[in-house]
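Note to self: keep these together.
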Amino acid sequence: MLVEEEEPLLCDVTKQLNYNHIFARTYITCYLYIFDVFYPYSSIQNSAMPLPDTMYCSQQITIPPELPDILKNFTKAAIRTQPQDLLLWSAAYFNALSKGEPLPVKDRLEMNVATQKTDTGLTPGLLKTLNKQLSSRQPCSKEELQKKWKGLCLPVEQLETLLSLGSFSSDFDWLEFFALGCSALGGSIMSSLKIACEILTEDEEGGPARIPFHIFVKLYTFLACLDGDISQEHIDNLLSSLKTKAEFQQEMIKPVDFIHLARMDTNSPRSSSFTKETSGTE
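Structure:
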């Protein structure tokens, strides 16, 4: 009995030691990136004032005044994002910070809604982060997407599945990949578009989630054509009916305008397999 009681305790201690080790390595990485930002090696080489050969006291060490805020923001970002690989994500975080690029950080902590068997799959919060990082890049390169995807510790298999389904070349339209990402989270085309609206909208959270109608057209057309079982006539008729609504809403569309049409694509004989392929499930 004593051995059985000690085993869980030993397991907990081992996990804690492993966590502390990862945490320590992460903070070392943070300091290295911060030092490189404030004191690039090239500037040290070219500096007229040579570094002292011997350190006699702590006063000789100059700490940037921004360092406490940088580490505070980093800690908050890590808590919100909950990366699977803290060290890998930290490298991506400080690399983006040093270049003035959008950070790989979620807007807020979210419950696990990953569609895979593990908790490492794509989520709305992570897709929104990718959109912030890549939406300005037109065209978007596959190499840059792979880099940002890896920085968020997302599974490579899921990315390869999405790239294969979309038949994306080395350069592609980011919105098309974004649409596929939404389909990995939604159970149908219309529910995928609802997720897209919630991610792309500039309305406050809990608001109508409006997006420009021309963006909706691009997302819906791409997913409907990729599905393969929705006729062009049906696509045109649906968009025509929604355009009438958009004209009275300053060319904007919101989920409540189209979500009731969800059954039109759930009846598609290919829709269930299409959803499984994009979500990466068996």
